[in-house]
Write a structure and sequence with these properties.
Layout: H1 2-16, E1 20-25, E2 41-48, H2 57-68, H3 71-74, E3 76-84
Parallel strand pairs: 2-3
Antiparallel strand pairs: 1-2
């Protein structure tokens, strides 16, 4: 599972050059959940980046999803995103 966290971190660092990035694997909290049976994980992301300046919450989430690319289909079942600008942090 740590490989997934590292892959998520790498993609987000590359896309956003964040001031702060925290990725937590919370898959263990969802063991037995119908959506977790396919082997994909549950993750919590907090990212602080100037790249989010002038964007709304939905657009920020889309930016994060786009940066994660195919991982959203192959590795991630659920993703909680807290995307903030440095001023909001």
């Amino acid at each position: 599972m740590t490989d997934r966290v590292e892959a998520i971190e790498e993609r987000l660092r590359s896309a956003f050059s964040p001031k702060e990035l925290l990725v937590k694997d919370q898959s263990h909290l969802h063991a037995g959940h119908a959506g977790a049976r396919d082997g994909r994980g549950h993750f919590d992301v907090k990212i602080v980046s100037e790249a989010f300046d002038g964007t709304g919450r939905l657009q920020r989430h889309r930016m994060v999803f786009d940066a994660l690319g195919e991982m959203m289909d192959t590795d991630i079942h659920a993703l909680r995103v807290r995307a903030l600008t440095p001023e909001e942090h």
